[in-house]
Amino acid sequence: MSDIKINGYTISKQNEPFIIAEMSGNHNQSLERAIQIVEAAAKAGAHALKLQTYTADTMTLNIDTGEFFIDDPNSLWKGTSLYSLYLQAYTPWEWHKPIFDRCKELGMIGFSTPFDESAVDFLEELEVPLYKIASFENTDLPLIRKVAATGKPMIISTGMASVAELDDTVRTAREAGCKDIVLLKCTSTYPATPENSNLATIPHMKELFQCHVGLSDHTMGVGASVASVALGATVIEKHFTLRRADGGVDSQFSLEPEELHSLVVETKRAWQGIGNVNYGALDGEKASLKYRRSLYVVEELKAGDVLSNQNVRTIRPGYGLAPKYYDQIMGRKVKVDVPKGTPVSWDILG
Asked: Boundaries of each AFP-like domain copy (predicted)?
């Protein structure tokens, strides 16, 4: 699969993972706080900051009964209607430009998840460099088609999607003009558990769809994200807030600045640690070869003395013959006087 270039950054297995800080509704309806989140994400080292572009009316209906009301006892948002939740969580559209402008000033890529076609049109006016499709919209093929027609890279979360559904999604995006697709392994529970993350899907998904694959991580901490890099993830997305204690619709499963910095650092270390298949001493290890064990004379010997387990031992450092020659030299005579502490070599043997 080919590398994906976005505003000077390249998504590639040759590069450290592309880290996306997802603001979502953690701005708590304050533009000042939203800008602070941008600044904190940049300081922590994130490569991109993502918004969500919708209104309550483009997401659902203003009904607070039946299926429009969240009564799941395990939901973070139990006791509210879908409309009220999206009214609280949405990012005002007039905020997008100042947020994206601040991202650009700080060297980050700013982009968003559109939830309907009007959001795509709006984001096109702002010239976003790529798009994200949320898990709950990954079967919305008309939306997929609309976004793909822009020709810009698409990052698609795969939460809940079957292989057949993902095949429809990827095929639709490619046929509509998108050449650069990243699929994100995602578990659509909030928060998600490591046990339900199934990161082993990442290399399988990569092989199946022949595209870059990453992780949209709703678990607490950074462990799952770091592990995903070893399995080939090239993009990682985590929700981000200034402080979970500040509250907000997604705050409970969002990283704080110090944790985001740790994510950036540790995923880069994981990527660096993968390296290539290698055996033998690396250049940096060659100086350590002298500290291997080898055969040494441990008692003073006179010419004609016989080597035995009393006067030869396998010790550090490594300037003598390798230990594998121990049995071969036992019973051999030395042809010269040998001081204690002399490395055994063929030259001293008769």
From this structure: 294-350
